[in-house]
Fold this protein.
Amino acid sequence: MQLSILLFLVISCTFIFTIAAMMLVGPVYDIDGADSLILKATENPDALKGNMNEVNALKLIQLLSTIGTFLIPALIFGFTKGLGSDYLKLKSKTSMLMVLMGMAAIFLSAPLVNEIYTLNKMITPEWFGSLGKGFLESEKKNKLLTDLFLFMPNAPDLMINIFVIALIPAIAEELFFRGIIQQLFKEGFRNIHVSVWLTAVLFSFIHLDFYGFIPRVFLGALLGYLFVWETVCG
């Protein structure tokens, strides 16, 4: 029931924020037809590199979609579920030692992640039929969009990217997956390890990256255990 409520929040907020973004890009960036802009970005992204106004319009759509899909549903669900209990652990104090140890764990895991990525590339999409092909197609489209976003002719574009591509998605996704999904799975399965790994699989699946699926599961599990560690030790 709680997952159904969360899913309803995700669908509703995604729809509202995406529609709002599509309506905003017109007057803000003087663009006619956000639908055609998105189609153009997926079919011929190189054509947009000469018009940073259109690229920034896409970034606004991406930003508001991320906020609507992950951040707002997580905040609404967390605040209503844990009234007065800090369900999302936003009020919990984190020691500098815990921050440094978490950073070290992620940094030191990089060689292992690279090895897992190499092993993942040995798996071909054809093994999974239409599902694998769909993943690969989505991965190609995401890569084209990412390459377009990473086109940064000046310093302000870099600052925008840090905010749109790195900061907001990281906060929103962690609140959603570790703050909400993992805790719900823990309540349902009553097993920390099942909740961590199941959340990690869902976290990786949602990114639709076939060749990065297994390493992202590993990273998701690492973040999950860091969250558990901080919750218990903090």
Observations:
- Residues 146 and 165 are 9 Å apart (CA to CA).
- Residues 2-83+96-233 form one domain.
- The radius of gyration is 19 Å.
- The mean pLDDT is 87.
